[in-house]
Amino acid sequence: MATIDWERFNENFQYYDMEIIREVIENFFEEYEERLSTIEKNIADNDLKQLSFNAHSMKSVIGNFMAPAPHELCRRIEEQAKQNSGEGIPELFSELKRLTYEMRDELREYLLK
């Protein structure tokens, strides 16, 4: 099953030429590892304020690609952090990381078309 909702993705980018789409995807490729590492560090440091901010930021980036499951995980991490509760966040992050890598792979395949 695809991580990205390709119908919504194509609707979202329908007015952009392929060069712009490629640039948006390439920017994601350049940033996602660092973003995940920052979130992981926030979790390890129990820095819930920064975690909320960084999860929100990651949610915005993922939102560009119409990937509902990783988007929802970012939202849940953000909300848990806002409520000053670290409970369950490591498990949510583990799933977010896995789905982000799946999303990356789908985007790579898309660029090869």
Description:
By secondary structure, the chain is an all-alpha fold. Helices cover 79% and strands 0% of the residues. Helix 2 packs antiparallel against helix 3. The chain is elongated, with a radius of gyration of 14 Å. The relative contact order is 0.16.
Give the helix tally.
Answer: 5
Tell the overall outline. Answer: elongated
Structural class estimated from helices and strands: mainly alpha
Termini, distance in Å?
19 Å
Helix percentage: over 70%
- Rg: 14 Å
Q: Could you name the ranges where pLDDT drops below 50 across 5 or more consecutive residues?
A: none
Order of helices and strands: HHHHH
Main β sheet profile = none
**Strand residue percentage:** under 5%
State the total count of DSSP E strands.
0
Secondary structure blueprint with pairings:
Layout: H1 6-12, H2 18-44, H3 48-63, H4 68-82, H5 89-112
Short summary:
The protein has 113 residues and is mainly α. It has helices at residues 6-12, 18-44, 48-63, 68-82, 89-112.
Quick tags:
elongated; 5 helices; 113 residues; mainly alpha
